[in-house]
Known about the structure:
Layout: H1 2-68, H2 86-93, H3 119-151, H4 158-193, H5 197-246, H6 250-253, H7 261-268
Helix pairs in contact: 2-3, 3-4
Amino acid sequence: xxxxxxxxRHWREWTRTCQTTRHAEKRQSAGxxxxxxxxxxxxxxxxxxxxxxxxxxxxxxxxxxxxxxxxANTMPFDFxxxxxxxxxxxxxxxxxPPTLFSxxxxxxxxxxxxQCPGQREFExxxxxxxxxxxxxxxxxxxxxxxxxxxLTYPTSNGPYRDKRDVVRKVEKSADHLEKQVNEHLESAYxxxxxxxxxxxxxxxxxxxxxxxxxxxKEAEKMKEQQxxxxxxxxxxxxxxxxxxxxxQPREFKLSPQEPSRSTRSSSxxxxxxx
Length: 274
C-alpha cells in the first residue's frame, strides 16, 4: 500500500512538472509573436490614422477654398436689377397673384397685378430688396468671418482686428450695392410714372408677353438638359451591362452543349419495371 501511495505521489508530481513545462514552452513560443503582432496592429492603425488625417485635411482645405470664393462684390440675385426697368422688375421680383387662374384676380402685398403696376408694386419692390439685402449681408459676414476663424491662429489681438476689418469691408460693399439698386428703383419708377396710362398699358402687356417668352425658353432649355441626362443615363446603363457581361464566368458565355451519346442512350433505355 505504501508503495502504491508513493507511486501515486510521484505520478502527480511528474504530471505537474509536464504541465508546467508545456505552459512554459507555450509562453516562450508565444512570447516573440505577441509583440510582433502588436507592432503590426499598431502600424496598421497608424497608417489608417494618417490616411484619415490626410483625407480630413483635404476636405477642410476644399471647404476653406469654397468659403474664400464667396465674393462680397457679387450680386445676391441671379439677375441684374440695374439693367431692368420698372415693369421688368415687377415681374422678376414679385410673385404672381395667387388668384391668377380664377375668374376674379386680386393681388397681394408681395405679388404683381394683371393691371399696370403702380405705387403698390413700388412699395412691394422696396420691401423685397430690403429683405434680400439684409439676408445677403448676414450671409456675407458669416461666410467671411468663419473663413477668418479657420485661416488665422488664435493670437491675442490679430484675428479680432482682422475680423472687424473684414466685417466692415463686407458691409460697406453690400451697402454700396444696395444704394445703387434703391436709386435705380427710384429712377425707374419715376420714369414709369411720367408715361401716359395708354403707354403704360402697352409696355405692361409687352412685358407680360416677354415674360411668357422667357418662361418658354427656360422650359425648352430644361427639356434639352433632361434629354441629355436621359441619354447619359442610357449610355451608363449600357456600359454597366457590358462590364457585367465581361465579369461573368467563361462557362456562362458558352452555348449549352448537346448531351453526349451515352447520356442519350441511357435516357432511351427502357426502365425495368420488375
